[in-house]
């Protein structure tokens, strides 16, 4: 391998754009904008009047987990022992009574949606490490709020929320996320540094 080839390969590995753990791939909200939270900031808290925003939010939780028992969902099919699931959280937390309609897309088809307080609490073991989840009595959706799996696109959740205090919160369970299997940028960088190291060894040998 020539010096030029080694440098080119190293630069490609270091500079190439990589989407690591980017399993939410898009969304829309009629009341504001859609915000995909990634990376999740340290000390992040969700669950009761934390955002006070007309925007619709989503972030990824644990990805590609081989579950060992059935997870009860409120919409769709219950993932059962042996299934691999990726978990995602969607929430709408305005500062006053506000309605929004929209959708969120994922990179894999949806098993089911958890919309009720009891089932959300029971599935918090899928939560993202470092996120504080508050669990008020009205966590989830109330009467009149809906979250449905799109009849045409099995990877899309359609939402129709009206929220005030403490907001609306759902968890979406998808099948294995292909994008969550992509190496993190730090690993790509290490590979690039390794190639540069090979270049240094080549120089010393010459």
Description:
With 206 residues, the chain is an alpha+beta fold. It has two domains: 1-18 and 183-206, no CATH class; 19-181, no CATH class. 19% of the residues lie in helices and 31% in strands. The chain has helices at residues 3-15, 117-122, 185-205, and strands at residues 24-29, 34-36, 45-46, 56-60, 65-66, 75-76, 84-92, 98-106, 110-114, 132-133, 146-149, 156-163, 168-174. Strands 2, 4, 5, 6, 7, 9 and 13 form a seven-stranded mixed beta sheet that branches. Helix 1 (3-15) packs antiparallel against helix 3 (185-205). The chain is globular. The two termini are 14 Å apart.
Short description:
This protein is an alpha+beta fold and 206 residues long. It is built from three helices and 13 strands. The chain folds into two domains: 42 residues, no CATH class; 163 residues, no CATH class.
Biggest pleated-sheet summary: 7 strands, mixed
The secondary-structure class comes to: alpha+beta
Q: Which whole number gives the mean pLDDT?
A: 83
- Count of spatially separate domains: 2
Count of helix runs: 3
The counted number of beta strands is 13
Level of helix content?
10-25%
Rg, Cα atoms, Å: 21 Å
SSE sequence, one letter per element: HEEEEEEEEEHEEEEH
